[in-house]
Design a protein that fits this description.
The protein has helices at 5-33, 55-58, and strands at 47-54, 60-62, 67-68, 74-80, 85-90, 98-102, 114-119, 125-126, 132-140, 149-155, 161-165, 175-185, 191-197, 204-208, 214-219, 238-239, 245-250, 257-262, 268-273, 280-286, 292-299, 305-312, 317-322, 328-331, 335-336, 342-348, 358-362, 371-374, 378-379, 382-383, 386-388, 400-407, 414-423. By secondary structure, the chain is mainly beta. It is globular, with a radius of gyration of 21 Å.
Length: 426
Amino acid sequence: MTETFGQKRSTVHQVAALGICAVLLGGSAAVQAGGAGQAGGADGPSHTFTIVVDSQRDGLAATRCPAINTLGTIAVTVVDTLGRTSIITKRNANDAPVTIADTQTVANFPTICDNGFSSLPSDPSINEKGEVAFQGNLRRVSGCAGGTRQGVFLGNGGPLTTIAHSINLPGGDFISEFLVADQSVNTLGRVAFVPELDLTFDQGLFVGSKNGTYDQRFLADTPTPDGFNFNNLSSRVSMNELGQIAFESGLNNSSVGGIFLSNPDGTFRTIVDNTGALSSVADPSLNLLGRVAFLGDRFDADFNQIFSVNTSRGGAVTTVAESRPGGFASFQEPSLNDLNQVAFTADVQPDPHVFVTVQGVFTGPDPVADKVIQVGDRLRDIPVTSVRTCAEGLSNLGQIAMIVQSEDPDTFEVRTLVVKATPRTP
């Protein structure tokens, strides 16, 4: 039976509602059990903090950006003390990590020409069911044709599903050895990814499914039916529960670059581009309502470059935070949830007369009142020397998944933490 757009949206809302209820009923005590740090806004701590993974305690050091879902489950890439890389999920400090994938040799996986993953090069993406999508470079078996082999996979701790692989259909060899951008998964288990096609080496935006079917949204340099002609994609794509995908690209035969929205019906629309007030835009994060958070920059009347975090559904742009002397200096990719809340990493310039910056995670325009945590704070008496959140770091309950590092000034040993920040209730 084919679902209508309305039925599909209703199903998604039911899944999200179940996830939120589960957290409200069972998540609070677990969050508090992790312990609160001495970090927060000007009027006292704005969040409690759970140290989910600790390289000193667990022997696992995070190496890539974490992703979090509404239930508070975090997916993150880690390396153990023997140098083995894996993608795990974990919700609280005392949970046993669930291994999604690792770089141990596995004979005949995913084909007889592969022996498992040689590396896991993308940030993981997690959906509300706890399924994790990721990219893997494969260990090619001697004697098999071809060079480096890659694929996109989906798993939740059991057998992995191959979403796309170098020898998948359609067309025999499907993707070449090059996946262009990080993938994004929704709760229906559909995965948006950007491969370079074998033979033609064209880039394109595709959606893969668990049953092996593909939806080709567009190929670079090939006009779409509604008149867009995109060139190559240049950053991570972001897909919502309705199958809409936000992506960054340029338009051929012009100097226009922007963030665009791909709809499941094959149509496209512009969210924001560089023909208006902003000189460039990047790093989209899409929510269920079709709103996109992104980075932008512009030049003021004195030709000073101003950086910003913004949101838009197309048309009017809302500025969330903007750089200024004595305030924010620069930003990294934002994360947007379905309640239109935003979290982002930024560098702050405390003294407007001295260009020395401090890195932190924030949720709004004021680097003091909207601070979650920043370098110089102490987290359960651990000094913070680096902190970062990324495009899937904010959940629908406002929890933020972050990587926090603490470097010993004498030994230069780095302790790496995966931290979940939970907003305090008034």
